[in-house]
Amino acid sequence: MPSITVSYRDLCKLLGRRIGLKKLTRHLLMIGIDAEASGDELKLEVAHNRPDLLSPEGVARVLKGFLGVEIGLPRYKLSAARVTVEVDRSVKSIRPFIAAGVVTDVKLTDEIVASLMQVQEKLHTSLCRNRRRGSIGVYDLDTIKPPVRYTTTLPDDISFVPLEFDRELTPAQILREHPKGIEYASIMQGWSRYPLLIDSRGVVLSVPPIINSESTRVTSKTKQLFIDVTGEDERVANQSLTILTTGLAERGFELRSVAVRYPGRRVRTPDLRPRRHRLSARNANEFIGLALKPRGIAKIAGRMRYGVADIRGDILTLLAPPYRSDLMHEVDLIEDIAIGYGYDRLEPTLPKVVTTGERTPIERLSERARRVLTGLGFMEVMTYTLTNPRTNFELMRARGEAAEIANPVSEEYTLIRNSLLPCLLSVLRANRRNPLPQRVFEVGDIVVLDEGAETGARNVRRAAAAVIGEGAGFTHIKAVAEALLRELGIAHEVRPIEHSSFLEGRTAEFVSDGKSLGIVGEIHPEVILGFELEHPVATFEFDLG
Amino acid sequence: MDLHAVIDGLSVHEKKVLLTLQRLDGRAGVSDIAQRARIDQATVMRAALALTQHGLVEMREEKSSRAVLTREGLGYAREGLPERRMLVALASCGPELVDEVAARAALKGEQVQIALAWLRRKGWAEFLKREDKTVLGITEQGGAAISQKFADEVLLERLAARGHRVDEIPADLREALNTLVERKLVGIEEEARRELELTELGNQALALGVELVEEVSELTHELLVSGRWREVKLRRYDVVAPGAPVHPGKVHPQQQIIDELREILPEMGFVEIKSNLVESEFWNFDALFQAQDHPAREIHDSLSLSRPERTKLPSPALVKRVAAAHERGVAGSTGWGYKFNIKVSQKPVLCSQTTAATVRYLASHPDPPVKVFCIDRVYRHEKIDYKHLAEFYQAEGIVMDPRLTLRDMLGYLKQIMVKLGLPKIRFRPGYFPYTEPSVEADVYFPEKREWLEVLGAGMFRPELLHPLGIRYPVLAWGIGFSRLAMIRLGIEDIRDLFNNDLEWLRARRMV
Fold this sequence. Notes:
Strand order of the largest sheet of chain B: 9-13-14-18-17-16-15
Number of strands of chain A: 26
Radius of gyration of chain A: 33 Å
Oligomer: heterodimer
Shape of chain A: elongated
Helix content of chain B: 40-55%
Mean pLDDT of chain B: 89
Number of helices of chain A: 15
Mean pLDDT of chain A: 95
C-alpha cells in the first residue's frame, strides 16, 4: 500500500477544526486509511485505487464529508488561463499526451511545498507507474512566457540547468550524470528524440519524464503555478492533473484551465466536471445486507462527497467528484455507501449455505502418511520448494530438468525442486552438530515439467524420509517405507535398480501397476560427503498421488 | 517417610553394610566393613552414601598421613640395613680390607658406599693403617651395637609388619622416622579414612529388623514363568530421579496450524481444493481482473518462469470475455482501458495467490452453492529475512450463493475466528484489486494483548464474475496465515515457520 506522511496540525487546519488524535485515527481507519502517529507526524497508508488520498488535502477532503464538516460534491471554479500548450507532431510516437493547468493566488509555505513534492512523487510511483504512464512537472508560471511548446529535441541539441545542478547539461548528459536521469533513463531507451517542454522565449521548462529546469523552480515566493502531466496514457495524465489541482483548491487557491492544441485537436485541461453515476438502492441494500431508503442512501452519499442529482424511485443519480478515478462500476459506489454507513455498525450475519465440507483426498492421504511416520519416531520437517541446481542435481550426482525461475532474487533459489531428497539431506546437513541418530521425513509437493499439462508443469505430492547414524541401513529404511506403503494401502512390488545418488546393490524401486512409485536405498558416499555429512544415510521417497 | 518403607527400599548391599556395622559395635572404618562383609570398598562407599541420605548412618572422614616402606625399605627390612650387615661381617673377621668385608657381607657396588657412609655416621667403624694398607676396623661403639638394635631398625621392622599412621609412631622413634624418610626407605602417604557410625535412626531400623532377601533389578521372563518372582525382591527405584529424555516423532509446528484450519473449515461446510504451484498469468492475474500493468504483476513482485516457457490458455471464448472486461469493461463497468495482450496471459508464473485456485474452481462450477477453501504455498519476489519469505502458505476460501451480502461475509469471518478461539474481531474497509466491497478484520490476540490484522475479504467484482459466467455474489476471504501461525506458535522470526533444527523441534510442545 502506498503511504504518505502528513502533519497532524496541518490536517486539522485543512479540516477547519481540531480533533483528538485518537478519534482522528479511528475515523481514518473507518474510511480505510491506516494511520500511525508519532508526534505531529502521521503516517497514512492509502489504498492503491485511491491516488486522490495521497495528499493531506485529499485526506482532509474525505474527512470533511465523513465528519459532516462539509458534505456533498466539492465544487470547483475554473476559469480559463491565458496559457496555451502547443503540441508538436514529433511527440506522438514517444510520449503523445499532455495535460496542463494553472493555479493562481497561491500562498506557499515550506510545508505546502513539501506536501506538493510528496504528492507528486507518490503519484509518480503509483498511478503513473514510475513515470512511465505519466510524469508531472510543477513550475513558477511567472518565470515562463507562454505559449508553452510540448515538442522533442535531439539528445544533444539543447542544454539547460536542471534542478539541483549549477551548470548546463544536455538531455543526453542529464541521463548520464543527473541522479534522476540515471534513475529514469530506461524509459527513454530506444528514443532518438527526447520530449521537451519549452516556452516562447526558448526557456526550457523540463525534459519529461526526467527533470525540470532550475530557472522555473517553485519557491515559497511563487504566486502562480503552471502544472503539466505528460504521458503515454491520456487518462492517467488527466487524472493526475485533476488530483493535483483539486488538492491545491482545498488550500483556497484559484484554478485555471489551459488550452492544449494537438495537431488537429484542441482540449481544455483540467476537466473538473463531476461524473454522473447511477446507483440502484436495491442493489446497494442487497449487496451490503441493509434496508436503507433511497433518501438515506443519498444522505450517506453526500457524506462520501457525492452530489445527488436526482432520485427517481429506486435509482439515484450521483455526481462523483472529478478526482475519483477509481469508480469503474456500481459496486464501487456501493462500497462507498457501506463505508459511509460505517463498517463498525455492520452486524455480522451468518447465512445458511448448506454444503458438506471435506478435505481433499491427497491431503487426507498426506495426513495418514504423517501419522505413520511420526508413529515410527520420525520428525517432520518443512523445507522450501525453491532450490538451486547445485543442491537439487549436482550434490545428488543427478541430472534432470526442473521448473526454472526467470527473475530469481538470489542464486540460492533459482529452481523448483523435483525431489524431496536433496531437501532432507540439506536438513541433515543443518543438523550435523546435533546428536545422532536422526530420523526425519517430509510430506510435500514437488514440481515436474509436463508438456501435456495445462501450465507445462504439475505438482506431485511426495513422502520422503531419511535416517542418519544408527539404523541408517537398507533393511531398516526399506522396512519403514514398506510399513508406510502398507498402511496407506498402496500395493507395490520391489525391484532392484541403480541410481547415481545411491549405493550400487543397496537400492530398490517400488513399482505399482508397472509404474515407478519411488525409490529406497543407502545414499552414495560421494553424496553424503557432498552434503558435509560423515555418517551413513538411508532414505526413501515416493509419490503419494 | 515411614521407617519400614525405608528399610524395604534398601538394596542388599545397603542392608549388608548396616548389619556389618551393627556387628562392629556400631562404628567402623570403610575398609574394615568391606573386609568383614566381603564386598569391595567402592560398593561399601556407595551403600554408605545411600544410608547417609536416609539418615541411618553418619559418615566421618579423617585425613591422616601414613608411614609406608618403600621398595628399598622393604628389602632392608628383610635383609638388614647394609651398615648392619657390614658390622656383622666385620665382627666375625676382624679388621680387613673393605672389599673383603663387603664380600663377606654379600654387599655390592652402591650398597658398599651406602654401608660405609652410615658406618661412619653411626660411628661403628673406622679406617686403620696396617702394613701400608688401609683396612676397616670396628670401633668401641660398633662393638656395643652388635648386640643391640638401633631405633631405625626397630621402626623398619614394625613398618614391615604393617603401615603406621604417623601419629601412632611413638615419640622415641620419630627421629628414626625422619632418618628413614631421608634415606627414602619410608614414604609418607596422605590418606582419607572414612568411618561409619550408626545413627539413632539406624539403630531403630536394626531393631525393627533388617532382613537380607535376594534382590533383582528387573522382572524377567524366567522369574515370571518359574514363579520365582514371589521369592525375590524387586529393587525399588528412585522414581523421582531424572532420567535421559526421549522424544516423539512430531508433525512440524507450521503443519499443526495448517491441520487445525483443515479441521475447522470442513466443519463449516467448506470443501478443500488444491492449487497449481506453477500457474499461468491468465489464472493468477487476468482472470482476477488485475490489469496487465498492475504493480503486483511487475518483475519485482512475483516470480516468473523461464521453464516451462508457455502455458495453455482456456477456451478462446473465456479468454475473449476476460480480455473484454479488462479493455472496455463488462456488466456496466468501464474496464481498465488498455490493450490486453494474450502473450502476457500465457506466461507461467509461480502462483502468487491461492485465489487463482478458487477462481479456477468457480469457472468450472458456476452453479450455487459453492463453498471451497485452499491452503497452499504461494510465492513472492522477496529476499528472505526475519520478516519476509519467498514462499509461504495462504489460506483462503469462497462462498457463492444467491443473495449473499457483505454482512454475511463478516459473519463468515467471525465464525472462522470463533472456531480458532479468537472471538474478538472488528472490521474496517480494505482494498483488494478483485473485490468490492472489501473488508479487513483485526482480531484480538489475548497472548499478545493486541489487535492484529489477520483477515482480508470481500465480494468478487462483477468484472471477475461476469466473464466466468457466475451470476451470483461470491464472498472471498483470506487468512494472513503466516501471522496467525507465528502468534499461535509464539515465534517472532517468520523463518522459524520453516525451522528444521531437530533440537528446536524436539523442544517445542505440540499445539
